[in-house]
Amino acid sequence: MSKFVKDMITKDLRNRLNGVEDALLVDVIGLKNDKNVALRQRLRKKNIHLLVIKNSLAARATQGTRLEKAFDNTGGTMAIVWGGEDIISLAKEVITIADDKNFAPFAPKGGVMDGQSLAAEQVRAVSKWPSRKEQLSILSGQILSVGANLSSQLLSAGSKLASQIKKKSEEEGGEEKAAE
Hints:
Layout: H1 3-16, E1 23-27, H2 33-45, E2 48-54, H3 55-61, E3 77-83, H4 87-99, E4 107-113, E5 116-119, H5 120-127, H6 132-179
Antiparallel strand pairs: 1-3, 1-4, 2-3, 4-5
């Protein structure tokens, strides 16, 4: 491939990956055509992009970006996957697809998260983390539980006091009726 063509491809890749900070590398080589189409449709529904790319060209295109470390110590042709809600939801989807027997040769090979490279085992570990939505729901539950506990403690003391006052007033009301 001529230097001119490499430069054009590198420029196009740089434009496509502009703004992408987290991505995963997967192996799709050997995936049958109909499975490849089904895979891309499944990913497209979740706003996830897949691009098969030669590693040397990807390394040139990502030079000086946060994605640069993803292509250290990699060889051959792989696909880069990015998008989704966040890197955790992306990792969950990649692992789900890798575990599906219909997409047999599909496998995670690594990636980059927050500027740090990930190995295939680390991608599996990241997929087990709670996603952004799950983290927000956990956080809101923890915040609300403190208020709920406080209000129940305040209300329980007040209700006990109110029931004692009511009981006392009924006793006094009963004594007054007996005196009459």
